[in-house]
Design a protein that fits this description.
By secondary structure, the chain is of the alpha/beta class. Among the domains are: 247 residues, NagB/RpiA/CoA transferase-like (Rossmann fold, 3-Layer(aba) Sandwich); 63 residues, no CATH class. The chain is 53% helix and 10% strand. The chain has 23 helices and ten strands. The protein has a six-stranded parallel sheet, sandwiched between helices. Strands 8-5-6-9 form a four-stranded mixed sheet. Strand 5 and strand 6 form a beta hairpin. Helix 2 runs antiparallel to helix 12 and helix 9 packs across helix 10. The longest helix has 23 residues. The structure holds iron/sulfur cluster. Iron/sulfur cluster binds next to helix 14. The site of iron/sulfur cluster has 15 residues, from helix 14.
């Protein structure tokens, strides 16, 4: 199936202007909450530097830390699996499910399983998974992917949720009361937890020193699943490793504040070994991460702790919605990670940015996000993944910009055309004009103005 480009998908999203404004304002509200929480901590910048340095150390010593983690986890009774790619990850999961004759599965939020398209794979093999994060359950009912890594249903209004629950949970038609809707979801999910035989969770941090791991949720759904099922499988991208338990204090303080402006995530649950009679598995996944690690300009993107602060601040994300990115991880960090997985399919994403740098400013682990977006554009152009008209346009502009006299002449002609034949510019064939009003051309250029006053 051909993927719709970011620009084309965004065009569909922004047609609904009130929804676009509401989406923009809601995420900006989350960004402001993050600011307040961050400014409340005098040591905020110090924490960011420490987090960045710890992750630098991790990326340079991944081989050691991962093996340490495996040894410790195995000694604790955890069964460790390694997956080179999404396909192997999904096969491992299916194998555990089939071997144990499992039919009832619950899953808490895990962007890795979204990245690997686990739900679709299991469904094709006759196994249904119930997502238990409220936002994820809503989008699952609607057969949509999450649009945000922390707030999966942020593109939906309460009327949409009411409609969805009326259809799937038989709630009262038109009842948009959030408490009523949440209670309906609670009762529905409670049943699923009680019946579940196997729980899948993500991993926020895996600790090399102890072989344990931490899962953060605000709803407690990962704990409900892991504590009621006889089998718990935790899935992690290999960059989730941190060296010591002491480092958790740095990351947990940064994560919650950057994600939602909370001082701490409601549940930060530590798992170290299986309960008696329980199986605890952990699947460690590469899926392109080694390749990204080898790209000197982009390896820092593996420091990401998936807080989504860069989403909430990005003017392009806020105005275009998460689905326009057509990948599991959207937003600025998704635009860096996804071209590594498939350059051709995701060549549009690094261009979905104003390069304003706001993403880099808020990133708790100091990833130079906007610099990497800019570097990806260069890589994509060199690899031939930029549209021919854009390539020609850029060449012409580079030539004109390098010749001052020609540049001045082009400016003069442009201003004359805009004044005399505005229809040549202001028409539907000019993509720049589609969403903008063209400025009134000035009578003279800055150069002319400057020359007169010199
Ligand atoms: S890149 Fe930084 S700001 Fe964006 S999700 Fe990752 S950690 Fe958060």
């Amino acid at each position: 199936m051909k993927t719709v480009s970011h620009a084309a998908a965004a065009e569909i999203f922004i047609k609904d202007e009130p929804r676009t404004d509401w989406h923009d304002e809601t995420l900006w509200f989350v960004r402001q909450k993050r600011d307040k929480a961050a400014h409340g901590l005098p040591e905020w910048e110090l924490l960011r530097s420490w987090a960045s340095q710890i992750k630098d150390n991790v990326l340079s010593n991944l081989d050691t830390y991962l093996i340490d983690f495996e040894k410790k986890a195995q000694a604790n009774g955890i069964i460790v699996h390694w997956a080179a790619d999404a396909e192997e990850h999904n096969k491992i999961m299916l194998n555990i499910i089939q071997k144990n004759k499992i039919q009832k599965i619950v899953k808490s939020k895990s962007m890795l399983t979204e990245e690997c398209h686990l739900n679709e794979y299991l469904l094709k093999n006759g196994v249904e998974v119930v997502d238990t994060d409220l936002g994820e359950r809503i989008v699952q009912f609607r057969n949509e992917p999450p649009s945000h890594i922390v707030l999966p249903a942020i593109h939906l209004k309460r009327e949409d949720v009411s409609e969805t629950f009326h259809k799937h949970l038989q709630t009262e038609k038109g009842n948009n009361d959030p408490q009523y809707l949440t209670e309906a979801a609670r009762q529905h999910l409670r049943d699923k937890f009680i019946q579940s035989q196997l729980a899948i969770t993500g991993v926020n941090f895996a600790i090399a020193e102890t072989g344990g791991f931490v899962v953060c949720t605000n709803e407690g759904n990962a704990d409900m699943g892991a504590h009621s099922a006889a089998i718990h499988i935790a899935c992690m991208g290999f960059e989730k490793i941190i060296p010591k338990a002491a480092h958790l204090s740095v990351f947990l303080r940064l994560l919650a504040r950057s994600a939602t402006g909370q001082p701490v995530t409601t549940y930060s649950s530590h798992f170290h070994k299986p309960r008696p009679q329980q199986q605890l598995h952990i699947v460690i996944v590469d899926n392109g991460r080694t390749k990204q690690l080898a790209r000197a300009d982009f390896r820092n993107s593996l420091k990401c702790i998936r807080c989504a602060a860069c989403f909430n601040t990005c003017p392009v994300y806020r105005k275009s919605g998460g689905h326009s990115y057509h990948t599991a991880v959207a937003g600025p960090i998704g635009a860096i990670l996804n071209p590594n997985m498939d350059m051709k399919a995701n060549a549009d994403l690094p261009f979905a940015s104003t390069l304003c740098g706001s993403c880099s400013n808020v990133c708790p682990v100091k990833i130079d996000i906007h610099q990497q977006l800019w570097k990806w554009r260069q890589v994509l152009a060199a690899e031939g993944y930029v549209a021919t008209n854009k390539k020609i346009g850029m060449k012409v502009m580079a030539f004109v910009f390098s010749k001052p006299k020609l540049y001045q002449l082009a400016g003069k002609m442009g201003r004359w055309v805009m004044r005399t034949f505005p229809a040549l510019i202001q028409n539907k064939f000019n993509p720049w004009y589609k969403q903008r009003e063209m400025p009134t051309p000035p009578k003279q250029s800055f150069m002319e103005w400057y020359e007169k006053r010199r």
